[in-house]
Amino acid sequence: MILQLDPTILVNTPLGVGHATFVIDYGIHQNTCRVVALQDNRVVKHFDCNDIILSTNYTYGVNIRRNNFRETKSANGSVNQS
Questions:
Q1: Which pTM does this prediction carry?
Q2: What are the extents of the domains in the chain?
């Protein structure tokens, strides 16, 4: 199965930052493959799902802890970042 991602997802790969444009699922016996267009040189590469991570997205709070931000919860349950 091939799924086109619209919008694309910004990811970090071993070769740098890129946009995941397709997901290829070969079945239960193999890991899912991501087709990524790299930002630096515009090369399109295939990456195993274990080789990429989502890039930091401050709007949605994705991977903020990876960048040494601390999250604390206030009394009303909201999340504060310092």
A1: 0.69
A2: 2-70
Residue 69 has pLDDT above 50, yes or no: no
Q: Which residues contact 41 (CB under 8 A, 6 or more apart)?
A: none
Per-residue HEC secondary structure of the chain comes to CEEEEEEEEEEEECCEEEEEEEEECCCCCCCCEEEEEECCCCCEEEEEHHHCEECCECCCCECCHHHCCCEEECCCCCEEEC
Compute, in degrees rounded to 10, the torsion defined by CA atoms 2, 51, 46, 62: 60
Residue 66 phi, psi dihedral angles, 5° rounding: -60, -25
Q: C-alpha dihedral over 51, 67, 8, 13, to 10 degrees?
A: -20
What tokens does 79 get?
Answer: 């999340």
